[in-house]
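Second attempt. The first submission of NitT/TauT family transport system substrate-binding protein had a stray character pasted in from the spreadsheet, which I only caught after the job came back as garbage. Lesson logged: always re-copy from the clean sequence file. Corrected sequence (331 aa) follows.
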Amino acid sequence: MKRAGKFALLSVLSGSLVLSACGDDQSVETLEVAEVTRSIFYAPLYVAVEEGFFEEEGLDVDITTTWGGDKTMTALLADSADIALVGAETSIYVHAQNPMDSVVNFAALTQTDGTFLVSREPIDDFSWDDLKGTTYLGQRAGGMPQMAGEFALASNGIDVDEDVVLDQSVDYANIAAAFAAGTGDFVQLFEPTASEFEREGVGHVVASFGEESGILPYTGFITKESTVENNEEALVKFNRALYKAQQFVQEEDSQVIASSIEPYFEETPDDLIAQVVDRYRDQDSYAIDPYIDEDGWDHLQDIMEASGELPARFDYEDLVNTTITDQALQR
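This time the job returned cleanly.
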């Protein structure tokens, strides 16, 4: 049976790894997932809920949107969530502080940046030089969107310190509203907001940061090492269900996917959801399985280093667990 994920705020997240009765003595394990934002970029997660893939594994996955990487990781570390859906860079920040109970990346969801460069005015023949002398409404310093954005800009000859007026004064959750209200000439936005703005004439998509910044573990699932030690089987089930959803997103018609995840985007028309799914699939943004690529991990740290935000360089084996997916896919 299909069901929508829970959209409650962080304050109503319940305890970790709860076992509850369901039906004829069948037990279901509840996993609390804190997602960094709500986006069609995360379609496979919502598909796994709506198509019953988690349910088939005996899991009840509750999703809470925490609006920002720092808040999402705080939810995980404070045991308000069992799993964080967030950029892999946050695991590096945590691990660098040498905590008693560190974190580990155990599944990939996306493998490119998911943001798009949106211009206030239409530009028929966009050139990156069009940004020079303009106000660029950026993302949070140290967050993956901002770092990948700066990498893409630098790769195209734009120095954010010299060529644009970089405005990072707006909180992550309010960036889109600020741009709609008139702040900035260019902005970096996730979907479906970028396409909604385009349809409404508020802005115009002129470039993809996903295409510009390359393959990297942009958003994935992170948990605490203690959770791996104490309940690895639940994570194996999670990855098995996730893989089914990833294949669904790769193989099904975009309209079918749009119908599946529509409960998470009730104010977005189905045809626009399908358009965004196609846009992300066309640039290979969705990971095809839960494995995190080692070359992508190295590229992530290169981007962080270029932005001046890398606290230390960690080997792939330090912060990426592949055995969970090995078990889930029986490889």
